[in-house]
Amino acid sequence: MSNVTDFVERVKTERDAQILVAGILFFTIAFPVAFASAAAGVESAGLTAVGDYVVNGEVETILLEEGGEYIQDGDEWPVSQTSDAVRNEIETAGGNVIGVRITMTYDEDEEFSGATCFAASGSDAPDTITATLEHNEMTNSGSGENPGSHTVDLTWVNLSLLDEEVISGLSGTEISDQLNAGDDGLGAYDIVIGVSAAAGNAPGACSRSDNGEDVSWTIELLVLDFTIAPYIEVDATL
Ligand SMILES: [Ca+2]
Ligand SMILES: [Ca+2]
What is the Cα 77 distance to its own chain's centre? Predict the structure, then answer.
């Protein structure tokens, strides 16, 4: 009988061997838990001090809608979305929804008619495509001209912190508060897309018309995952 088989037989029958196995299991489980909780204590105590910190953050996008519509000149097309629709994706990305984004693309569809259009049909006048985003009474809007594309972001945390190499004068907890949206990031997102069309001029017996524009869009949520660590200056001369 091998040593292992022998030991397994003893565990089945002998009380001493059973206590030994229970002890090994206890320390295997208890030590990592104890060390992890001590490390967490050090980390959270470290972040309460005002000092120099480095933040690393990554923004992930979650698709809410890919859509498109011909919007008549002067009309607005509303789109309503909620975080409930993508609850699982938000959870997987870390849960910190810090903004909503729309990216629009559009061409130009001007028409011309008249006896002299074959010779000279003039040129397009750009339409203006606008999107307004709203969440928890915060809004942002942005316009672009066709043909082309543009993006409008509405964000509700202090993203400028991610641009700083070293953040000074704040505690780690304060930095975390400024980057964590919590439940405020969830809920309803209201988007309105509008078109203001313009027709260009053509010479002679040729005239141009423009009824609106065909706009395609992608609406995404922005989820921020970040870490904060005390900044430690390394003396390169050492
Ligand atoms: Ca036009
Ligand atoms: Ca147009």
Answer: 23
